[in-house]
Amino acid sequence: MQRAIVLQLSTIACxxxxxxxxxxxxxxxxxxxLTDKWAPSEWGANDKAGSANRRTAQSxxxxxxxxxxxxxxxxxxxxxxxxxxxxxxxxxxxIPGLPTGGPFGKQALVYNDEYLATEIGQFGTQFDGPGHIGxxxxxxxxxxxxxxxxxxDVGTYGLGSLGVEHVGQLGFVCRGxxxxxxxxxxxxxxxxxxxxxxxxxxxxxxxxxMVKNQGIAPIGEGDCVFLYTGHGDIWHPSKWDSYSPEEKxxxxxxxxxxxxxxxxxxxxxxxxxxxxxxxxxxxxxxxVPGEGEQPFECHIKLQTKRGIWNLENMDLSQLVADKAxxxxxxxxxxxxxxxxxxxGNPIALY
Length: 350
Hints:
This protein is α+β, with helices and mostly antiparallel strands. It has one domain: Glucose Oxidase, domain 1 (3-Layer(bba) Sandwich), CATH 3.50.30.50. The chain contains 10 helices and 18 strands. The model is unreliable at 1-22 (pLDDT under 50).
């Protein structure tokens, strides 16, 4: 049995190595990043942080003026083993030992540590960094600012210039804008988007309508914009642990079956406005399956093309309940060298 398992793993490993050795021409390619000159970015060929560069002293001071009541909302969900994960992603945390160490000294001190096995940048409330989304071109797999997976500093143990720590060095302090799509549509949750025109797809005109209806200033440069669809409440942090295992599995399947979200017109609108960050209560922020045959087009056009990053699986319920449509937003991804993204617990102050 053990020999059979070893042979099977060896076969898989060889297949992976052969696949990785193939030239980009062996795959379907998209040369739009090359022909449309997605690199260098507006911040120059050496930039590694993208839209985090939009933070200025003036924008920080302006964001702080939005704090009127002294209220705070944490926007991260709980990381736990039975939470919904996209595809094969999972969260496995153990406390080895109980206690892990001790007792020590006259005080008989003991301590506990945890051991964590997960896609730490791409599970639960998650930040998409520069190394997360790329495009296969005829010259290689293209990522933000013209970097490639075959670059010398990119490898299995870290993505070099594409690592999330470069964004973490700057972080985000910005005007946060909440867009309540459930109020706009008069339904909660919004339905899964399957084709153009579906109510689950939020367009540029919808964004402008929500801004007007909510009585807030237009979206502008450096803003961080978040979408509430109600879909994230399928996995609501205050109720999740009360569900039976069967109910959780049902909700996980429902949560991952697709989602409402921004359509490409909204994402192009945000790019034109030069925002700093998108986010939502869903696992992709944009509509899935979406409007056509280009899945995750917003990811590509905002992140890979322009360095406008994204936060997913946010808990926006307190902001929605308080109708806090404008707030000071504070967030920085963990400085994990070479990582594709980051977990975390963003903060809204209002």
